TrEMBL record:
Residues 40-187 form the HhH-GPD domain. The gene is nth. It comes from Bacteriovorax antarcticus. The keyword Transmembrane helix does not apply. This is Endonuclease III. Binds 1 [4Fe-4S] cluster.
């Protein structure tokens, strides 16, 4: 077994001990409300999204209702999440597409999801994993940074990181691991907070490391 695989196996075991439960961080009631919440979470914290969505979903929690809300009103409600003009238009437009093309349902495919305005591969992966139980590995900034600090990828870009992680972690663990890594990153591994030499996981994984890891964005 190669070293990278040994590291990956150790990570699976430690994260399972640390985070046996993985509640979904974004509050939602169905695939549509999760899709909207994930879209809102771009450049915004999950905590803030969870503060905003109750008001938005009280106004409209289905595509049928959302298309009747003026874009300017959606924009006002979601303003604290940032990028409000773009996100509000995307929410309105994608709701119309769901009605026109999918009978008001959220499509259960990467292709269908990624065609929707405001929905990229990461958002589609979260919805596929968390709403439909399809194995996916959405790479956000925490995962991108940790995968580099743990020596699992050279971290050229998020696509490469996703590919590298999918190779070393078993497919049936992707969805849970994705959340466990995010939880660990939030708790221990902040953007500038650590040089990669401090806590249990890095020191166990990189015992020969003598200098801090420089992570790529
Ligand atoms: S040692 Fe630092 S970089 Fe490594 S996992 Fe811990 S907090 Fe993150």
């Amino acid at each position: 077994m190669n070293l990278k695989q040994e590291k990956a196996d150790y990570i699976v075991q430690r994260l399972e001990e640390l985070y046996p439960e993985t509640p979904i961080p974004l509050d939602h009631t169905d695939p549509y409300t999760l899709l909207i919440a994930v879209l809102l979470s771009a450049q915004c914290t999950d905590v803030r999204v969870n503060q905003i969505t109750p008001k938005l979903f009280k106004r409209a929690n289905t595509p049928q209702k959302m298309v009747k809300v003026p874009v300017s009103e959606i924009e006002d409600i979601i303003r604290p999440c940032g990028l409000a003009p773009r996100k509000s238009k995307a929410i309105s437009d994608l709701s119309q597409i769901l009605l026109d093309k999918y009978n008001g349902e959220v499509p259960q495919s990467f292709e269908g999801l990624e065609e929707l305005p405001g929905v990229g591969h990461k958002t589609a992966s979260v919805v596929m994993a968390q709403s439909f139980g399809v194995p996916a590995f959405p790479v956000d900034t925490h995962i991108h940074r940790l995968a580099q600090r743990w020596g699992l990828t050279a971290g050229k870009n998020v696509e490469q990181t996703e590919e590298d992680l999918k190779k070393v972690f078993p497919r049936d663990k992707w969805n849970k691991l994705h959340l466990q890594i995010i939880f660990y990153g939030r708790e221990h591994c902040t953007a500038r907070g650590c040089d990669g030499l401090q806590c249990d996981l890095c020191s166990s994984l990189n015992f020969l490391r003598k200098t801090p890891v420089k992570t790529k964005k």
